[in-house]
Each structure stands twice: as C-alpha cells, then as structure tokens.
C-alpha cells in the first residue's frame, strides 16, 4: 500500500511542477506583452508629436503666405 501512496505523491508533484511551469510561461508572456505595449506607446507619442509639429508648420506657412518663417514668428 505504501507504493500506491508514493505513486500518488509523485503524480501530484508532477502536476504541481507542470502547473508552475505553465504559470511561469504565462507570466513571462504577459511581461513581454507589457514591455512591447510600453515601447509602442512611446513610439506613438513621438509620431503624434511629429505630426502636430508638421501641422503647426503648415498652418504658419499659410498664415505667412509662403514668406520665410522665423523662430520669433513661431514663439510670438
């Protein structure tokens, strides 16, 4: 009868190890997804900033009707 108990305990240990491995894999995947999302958020912010600056520059050119734009014109 002790062999049967030992066999059950071994199976439970294997199940626990398998669950732990699965959990660690899922946690690592989630961490990678979060890192990727944060990197993409930064890139998106920079793209939006660049787009806004281009739109501002186009607006200034329209206001000045193609005349050369100086830094003081932008700041003022």
From TrEMBL:
One of its GO terms (molecular function) is kinase activity. This is TSL-kinase interacting protein 1-like isoform X1.
């Amino acid at each position: 009868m002790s062999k049967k108990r030992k066999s059950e305990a071994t199976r439970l240990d294997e199940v626990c190890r398998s669950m732990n491995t699965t959990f660690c894999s899922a946690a690592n995947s989630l961490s990678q997804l979060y890192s990727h999302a944060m990197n993409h958020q930064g890139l998106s912010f920079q793209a939006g900033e660049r787009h806004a600056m281009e739109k501002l520059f186009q607006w200034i050119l329209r206001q000045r009707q193609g005349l050369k734009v100086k830094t003081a014109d932008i700041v003022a």
